[in-house]
Amino acid sequence: MGLNKLIVAGFKRSFEEKCLQLITQSYFTAIETKIIKINWDENDITSELHTNISQNPLRLKWSIITNVEQHLPKKEIIKEKGFAAKLPRIDLRLATINSSLEYVYHMEAKNLKETDSSLKRRYIDTGINNFVSHKYEDGCLLGYLLEGDLIKTIDGVNKLLKKDKRDSESLKSKINSLQGL
User: Which stretches of the chain score pLDDT less than 50?
Assistant: First the structure.
């Protein structure tokens, strides 16, 4: 007999909260050390955040493993020479095993600047769209704001979504319990 669905959902929710706490603490460490530069690519920033997550003692306490640039399985791909290069990749993957169940949380990252519409468009086209289409599942989209005001950047992304007639989708700024750890 399997675990009760409510218990499994509780484990999953708790794991997701731990993943978000790890990425948040990693970000605050990077800010404190002033290591991230505004000219870095998103993979550079993700690599630095991954290093901070790997060094966080909570990761070991919670039995979480992590890696960058994880291939995601694609059922409909023909496996012939070069197929792996065509597989979708997620920027950051965190996983744990609990009661013989594996929980995975994916994080896709995109650079953003308040005055750069092409970065906002990329955030939508290769970020939001990949979660909406279920190419990426069980995770979140990170936005690395390199320049500008957060609220104005969010408004800019929302204007592009509205222009695309996607009124039901929008970014919302909210304070959560993970801020200011």
Answer: 1, 179-181
Give the strands of the sheet with 139-147, arranged side by side. Answer: 65-71, 89-98, 101-113, 139-147
Which residue is listed with tokens 């750890």? 181
Helix/strand/coil for 91: strand
Residues 17 and 141: their CA atoms lie apart, in Å, by 15
Task: Render 95-107 in DSSP notation, one character per residue.
Answer: EEEETTEEEEEEE
Amino acid (one-letter) located at 128: I
Query: Tokens for 1?
Result: 């007999």
**Tokens coding 7:** 């218990």
- Note the pLDDT tens digit of each residue in 117-144: 999 999 999 999 999 998 888 999 999 9
Q: Can you give the C-alpha Rg of the chain in angstroms? A: 17
167: DSSP letter: T
Which token pair is 92?
């950051």
Model confidence, pTM: 0.86
Look up residue 44 and give its two tokens: 């550079």
The DSSP H or E segment spanning 93 is: strand 89-98
